[in-house]
Amino acid sequence: MSSVTDDDTDHWLDLDTNYSIPSQTVDEILAENDNGLDDDFFLVDDDDSCGLNKPISPIHLTYHLDCPLLLETEDVIAHQVNMVKDRPNGGKATCIAVSEQHVAVGTVKGMAILFDKKDGKLLCFTGNTENAPVSALGFNTNSTSLAIGYSNGRLKILKTTTGKTRDFDDCVVQPDHGIIQVEYLNRSSLLVLDNGGSVFEIREGRKGPARCIFTGCKGEAVQVRAFPEENILLLSTLKQVLIFSQKTGRIISQLRLPDFPQAPPLVDYNIQIHSISKRSVIHDVRVATARQNEIRIYSMTSDGRNVTFPLSKIIKPQVESTICGMFWMDLNSIVVVTVDEKVSLIDAQRGTVTATSEIEAVELVYNLAEFKGLYTGGNVSPAFQYLAPNVCYQSAKRYSSSLYLLGSTAIYRCDLMTERQQLDRFLARKDVVSAVLYAMDVTNTVRRSNFANNNMFKFIDDKIPELLAKLLDSTMDGLESGRVTDLIEHYRKYITVLIKVCVEKKYFDILYNTIYPKIEKDGLAKSIFLEILEEHAVEGRLEHPPPELIHDLLTYLVNEGQFAQFESTVSHMPIECLDLHQVITTCRSNFLFDGLIYVMNNAMVDYVGPLEEMCCHVAEFIHKAVLSDFDIATGNKLLLYLSACLSGNSYPVGDLPPERAEVVPLEVYKFLVSLNHLNISQRTGRERYSVLHLLLQYDPLQFLNVISTCADAPIFAQSDGRLSRLIEILVGVTEENPKYMGILIPFITHLLETGTVTPNLHTYENLILRTIERISETNEQHVEEKIVNLIKVCDQMSEDRILMKAKQKPLISICAYIYIKRHEYVNLLLTCIEDKQIPNCTFDFINHLLDGVEESGQAQLRRFVTSSLNVLNRLDSERAARLYLERFPECLISSEQLPFDFLFHCFRIKSAEGSKSLCGDEDVDEGLFRSLFKGIIEERTRTGCNADDIDAELSDILLYWLPMGSRDDTCLNLASSQNLIDSTVILLLARKHYLRAFEALYERLEQSGPNHVNFEKRMMMIIEICKQSRDIAISGGWWVKLFNFILSTTQGDDMRDGYFTDIFTIIVETCGSQVSQVLDSLFSHPRLRSATFSNFNMLVTKILFSCQIDRQILIQTRNCIQVEAYDLLKRMSSTSRSLHSTVRTNACAVCGNDILQSFTIFDCGHLAHLECLDECKRKCPCDSKNVEINHIETMHNSIMEDTASISMFGQENLRLRPCPEPSDPF
């Protein structure tokens, strides 16, 4: 299927500007089913739709490489080996060897067959009389000799050029051992490895027995590899790899192997020679060891004397079974063979498996018989027998970059696929797209080259044009059948590849002169081509495209409505490739100013024209309340273009040509400061400086940032008057619109600070004065601060007029700067006090001035503040109090009459700080507190507060300042005269007038009754009075009086209330000897006299519980005294032991009674009363009797048991008892 049949046929589907369909007759149309309508074409569903407007899924340009492992059969050699398999002296193949020219195969019956490597021709063969199996084969370095090792330990040398052989008469290895490997060191010297783990050296031209260079008792060698280029020998044992120097025979390094007894140790090397110069090369030598599923890579390093092999990487490939063969194919590729008949390719750099191939058909031959010693009676170590099932040292051999595998019926060669082979495979299956992409990647060195050489890259690079021609033919051939969408996808995929390859490889001649002329004949293919080409055009990757192609591309973009891509494409095209009329017309009609700027700048050398057109467009929408995103983008583009032109740069990036760098900024500056511009003035309504008005109206901050950025450009830097002239014009513009003043002032300040403009003091002073006059119209924050910054920069500016204007507003920040600069601190504070809007800033200024003003100015300042206490107090009494307490505490002493609110805040601040003094003088503090006390009463009374609230406030104050208020009777008399009972009681208690306090409070309780809001508080107060004066309360009968008062004020239900229960309990606990009277009054109450216990169980239980607590406290106190007495006696006893022998008893050794009075201690450790000494003749009677009494310990244990048995809150102790029990000591 194709959208065209041939070059001369009319398009049956043309999606360009013209649409046409094949002509049909009426009969043909009527003959068609369903009125000639194709349902597949017209029905739009999820699977198919027509047209190019359907969302297209992205094209992923990828390809899939074939398996890089190429496994091929050596058919000629395999056929000949199979022919001798059934012969008497033939047998199955057991081992293989490969050189540059030959391939050798050994059989189980002792035959060694030599083949030509190129054509597989049989060259010669040899056998032995004993029919011992061939167990190892090896060529020398120039492939002139083949060493043949047998399972019985014998060795034969075959000359490959003549076919002659040399038999060694005696066994060259240990007796009763077979050969498992032969390895040539050079042309005539070889190493023989037997299955006893020993290594022997044999030289062809020298007679005598073989020389043992490594014995099996040192580690049982299993494999040996020679480095002919580096004179290094690798010897792999069961536990490590030993690296020998062939020159000295010494061990250079030891490489440890993982401990996996069933996995064979493997070793291989890779050498890369890098040429530095004609005479100097570097050998990059790497050694790889493997065991089980772990590969370790070592890099050889040399300092000229010593050679080392540090570990560079450990690879653990994801293989499923044990590795039995490991071969280094090239610098970055390692091939491993596993016992599950798989070959895997490993990336040595990344350590990952890149490909895996099954080789079950190979039926790999294993060297099991040799490692089990089957021919020699099993004379091998258990380690060799355990290793034997997984060994294939002699059936898998690598030569150069080819791996040969010996199978049971054939010989296989495994190679890595080259780039050319991969390319041929793509072409063989007619996958031209993958072939082209792969060829491009190879030439760009994206894909790793296995045989990296210049000839290969040159071949593939020369092949790409031919591949592009094939791909172009496949593109235009279309599809044999399918829907329109299938054809679109076909075109999209193939054309994408064509354009991508041509652009990246810079085959623009093919793209412009071969591909596009053929594609443009098909309207559908052409539209897709232009769509894909646009992606590269907007990135500027097309070099010198033909104007016809660009015209078609721009026309397509306009028809598709892709104006952003149109603009970007125009900006990246050479100006000579554009149709100027087409571009300018399209850009003006669609407001594409980037394209318009590019064309007018480069084709017409007009830089002001685009600026004028953008200004006219901005003027059209500047009056909108809300700007659209497009309007904002246009305005920002205008400012960006203006910045580029003034700074002498090209838009959007780059520099202007030298011949334009001086002219363009000047022309743009003249346009900017032009007095009148007709087109812009008509749109903005401004007759003077319409351009500046327009830019300020759009975004004044960004416009001034543009000017500030360009202030050091040559247009301004090389002429002092231009920037100053621009500033003067801007100042004049702000007169008409004062909202720009707040933005213009910091702009000027910045220019003055950077020194890019000379100061014009008169202009700046007028600007500041007008800003102050119309500060309410600026709508800017921190205008005062901006004005101050400008005044700071202009040191020589006259400040009198500015100060006068600032005081009228007033503007405190401006006044503060000028007054501080003049050291007129009092005037500053007067101005702050007069400020009706923010008078509190006065305190901030006072604190700052006191901290920062020098000593000479502080005296005047302090005098003013000291004399202005009342004024500052009216501003803020709290801040005034804090100020004078911190800065002027002497004012509290010297002032005769302080305002009440000031004094109130002083005491509150001090109490919050935890201070007990106001100014440090007790007499002054007392006088101030009396003033405060009196002031609170008068002020609260004047404002209508009731007595209880006043009393509560004074009580709270007295609780903190009681020492001051109770020093004399002033506060007490004031409180008493105002009938403030709580305050009166507090003061009476402070002066220890307990009786007066009790009587006054009791009288108030009787008057107010239990329903008063402060009843509970005052009840607790009177109880505290009774507690403080316990003796007076008992002697005066206060408890009984108080208890009877409570009983008289409570009803039956109230007595069961929790509050009254607590009150009764407290009275019972603290009334002392009056408890009996209290309890009699309680239980004689009418409600309690005839009540049941359940009604008042809480009250009775609490009373009894409190009594029980007293009893338990007495018991515990007694026990504590006894325990302390016991401890004291023990310490005395310990002290006595330190002076005499160990005390053996705590009783008198004469009379047997406890030691309760003066005693003596005998040297033997016994004790005796002093009055008993005469009876025992001052000698211890221990010879006649043995006294052992431990009364103290017994007493202590009994005490502790009694203490432990007492539970204060047990049910037994809490139950009611009619009378004290006999066991109760109290």
Automatic annotation (TrEMBL):
GO terms for molecular function: zinc ion binding. GO terms for cellular component: HOPS complex; late endosome. CDD domains: RING-H2. InterPro entries: Vps41/Vps8, Vps8_central_dom, WD40/YVTN_repeat-like_dom_sf, WD40_repeat_dom_sf, Znf_RING. Residues 1148-1184 form the RING-type domain. Transmembrane segments: none annotated. It comes from the Eukaryota. Keywords: Metal-binding, Zinc, Zinc-finger. It holds the Pfam family Beta-prop_VPS8. Belongs to the VPS8 family. PANTHER family: VACUOLAR PROTEIN SORTING VPS41, VACUOLAR PROTEIN SORTING-ASSOCIATED PROTEIN 8 HOMOLOG. This is RING-type domain-containing protein. It comes from Bursaphelenchus okinawaensis.
